[in-house]
């Protein structure tokens, strides 16, 4: 059948019909899916990142713009507050196409792009009905409702305007002025993109078909704050964007102010290379190898609050992986692309915050899922997981679930594969990578997933633990510290009370112990299904110890810990059966015994404290008592159970073992010589004390030991107990006393071993020690001298012992010591006195001569000499004072006679200590001696930082912040302990200075000057401090009140500061300011801020104020003076330092001299602009010195130099005229009109007011000299002709002055050497035959080759007036 013809079809009733999209309805649907808040901002950041932008700026524009020149009157309501979004990437043609479609993103097939201007961009309709942007040479405005823009339709609800060539800004200034921000001027193409979203107000929302939600400025501010809180996360996985900044643009302000910023700290090429790895990966997706990249990034977050800002730096460690094309997930991606047209990239990355000081820890360690930007999906982990997830169209979640079909199932499977095949190994590599940063810290283990998780993250966690068994991610101190895999590790029992030492002991034995947080411990046991995780238990340790051969190397504490742990799960009666062969029984000898059953092994004793000491000679049979109480109690309980080789000690055991403590041949002997120092087999003295203590407490009758000599005597013998031969009881005497009395010759009994027993009275009788003093004199009465006797017989310790005995107060109660006895006591050389050199050395003297004193309390002994007695107790002192008449020296007297006069000789530590005591006691000392304070005020005793000592009056109080800031690091403050507040208060009473004076300021300045030769940077810093101080405090030292034009407040402050000033202070203040101007302390700029600015070759960072000027005088003085590095807002300071007066004429002249060098013509626009501002100031200053001596100096300096500014360069006097018809640079220049006000100055300095004809002739002469034989260019020829015409008009002709004119070739020749062709017919004929008959012609032609003709543009009249001969005249000749 034939097809109908077109005419037939046309005859049918046919109309256009098809599916259409209601744009406003479609946008409403988008807004329902996309949440409000920071989602809008993140979409803009995401699009900028895909565009390759490195910077994003968001600005709340609070301004209300004009509404007079708009594209449509209806647009006036959108000229109010708006959100501006800037990025430094320019729209491409594809971008313009993409943004014009809803859901028409061009990222399809570009797996590495998050999405550009697809559905997500339309979330901006939450904020506005009229979004717009400028990029490149276009402005684009969208009006989906078709209400506001002129001439739009539903088919094309927007406008794109090419604003560059159309000069849109000039026609619709109010419409396009809001886009003039972030470098956009709306006149030339904009190399970036700037969006503007005017905020929808309540009235607009009521009529909007897009959204009924109004947005206020506060809403945007809140969004900025929320974005800043998670700004680091927003930047974390982006590919291109390096910084996000947020601004507020207030009304009436020229530019916005930054309030927040988040950026990559110190971004470099390496940082960019890592972040853009994904952009390179698609080119390698067919690689058969897995690609992994790891790096760390520092993120700088800054919150600006007025003039201050708060910064923080957060560090992340990031690992990103691309699976190979041959892997399971790579094959899946290939199939999805081929069969379902779903383009997937097997790529993921994991990031962990490794900063342990972050103030934003909760946010940065709250794990989230990312698809480049954070998704509103919590993973439950502490790391951030980023991947090419298949997310929902509104980016609210990722595809996951077993109940999906077709493409949904593909996306769900893909996300699971991404987690299992890429995220799992990437997480393991992250743990390996951060080990070098964190070590085995709490922060490191916090990165591990713990707790419960929802799907699909629970599957991720399950696979992490399943696949991490062979990866060395757990730290053990084994082998000096190493990372081990979970499969080889022993998880430590952290619940054991002594867990730390247990772990250390097991590590020494070769067990790879790992310490984990409890929650991670449980997680490993729960989730490590692919291997059997080993754990430390008492049973596992017992088995390990039986097999281990190196237990002997362990320290005592480690063995005790192992013993406690190995017994922990056993009852007392089971110990022998389960803890056998463990070499862990701690013995008193320091060794360890082997634990065994009761019928096996050596018997060991459990003793009480006394028995333990007594049995030390057989310490290898005694359980150590220094072990912890819980272990000791446990071993005692085990011994009482009688199932092991442990037993409780008793007296019958002691009787059987006694031959092991004394020589066996002593048995049955009545007297033996006991010398334990010589005979090692003799029991020691301390052992005998313990022995008698044991007999007293545990032996009822001494007859049990009646066969042994057990009673010690002073003579060194031991006696067998006997009722017939009793010993003398010396109970009231000490061991040393008894020994020295024996040494002197007194026969007494030694009872120094605490021999107490109910049975003792049968063997020992008592003795009275009241006659000791008499016994001593009886013993030495046969000698010639008592002194000699003591020197021959008594040691130092013995003299001390005897003195203590004789000065015992009990002998002086009830007049038991008579005067004779006291006199005899004074004669004995037993009183210890100081030697005045060392606190450790003493002498022994009597009390007779010279007179002796007790020293003041709590004074250093090194100051005490031989007149001071060193008593050993308060009782001795009391006896000496009451019964012997010895007085205590007063403290003031002591300090004056024994301390202050030798301060400079003392060691610093001793000196400081004693002088601090003096200061603390000063009030009391002044009460004791009224003149003491005045003597101390003049004494140099206060240490300073340099080690020198100074008197208080020349030092300063460091608590005064101003003083400390000005004189820091100087030798002007007390140091060390003298800086304590209480001491400083005392020093103030002695003259310590507490306020800043002019002398203090000068001292600070001189300190800076000294530092300049040692440390320039430090001098600069100190100079800045001094400058800041003077800024605030200069009014304190104003010499004269400020002028009226310096402000009412300054005058009030000046008057207040000078109201009560002494009359003679003015001259002192003048000298102060004069001195301060001469000292080198001012911080100055070292390097020129402009490369064309005259600048001296100097390196000093400080200079005297006399040679310094403010930055505002930069272009006036920089050649010869230094420029202050800082502000000087104090008019008083500027006045007294000479900065408020204009620079001197010589300084200005020097500046002009340097500016004129090499600047005949200024082509640098910046320099030209600066000079255009500076030169009027310079000339204005010079105007002020006309008629002064300084002007003569200026003339001398500038004579013959290039110094005159003519608008585009500098000229000399010969090249400049004030008024002239011609500006013939560089030969003659006219002073610019804007400088005409300085006419008097220019005339004073010799500039001509008008040019004379001879001056014009000289211009031609200079031009000829300069050009030589070189032809003039067109401009120069024109100038030469103009000058020639001017000379002709004034009919100038002087024989003495040569006039140069251009010839036909453009070269300058003197007028007399040129001819002017006034007879062209004589030279123009080409008829050679006719020339032969004309003699004149022949003659003229013969001269054509030698004559030079004036330039053709010079008229006959001009040439004639300037003396150029004519051709006809020449022929006539």
Automatic annotation (TrEMBL):
Residue ranges the record marks as coiled coil: none
Superkingdom: Eukaryota
Record-level Gene Ontology MF annotations: Hsp70 protein binding
InterPro entries referenced in this protein's UniProt entry, alphabetically: HATPase_C_sf, SACS/Nov_dom, Sacsin_chaperone_reg
Domain Sacsin/Nov: residue ranges: 21-260
PANTHER family xref list: SACSIN
Protein name listed in UniProt: Sacsin/Nov domain-containing protein
Organism: Nyssa sinensis
Upper classification of the organism: Eukaryota, Viridiplantae, Streptophyta, Embryophyta, Tracheophyta
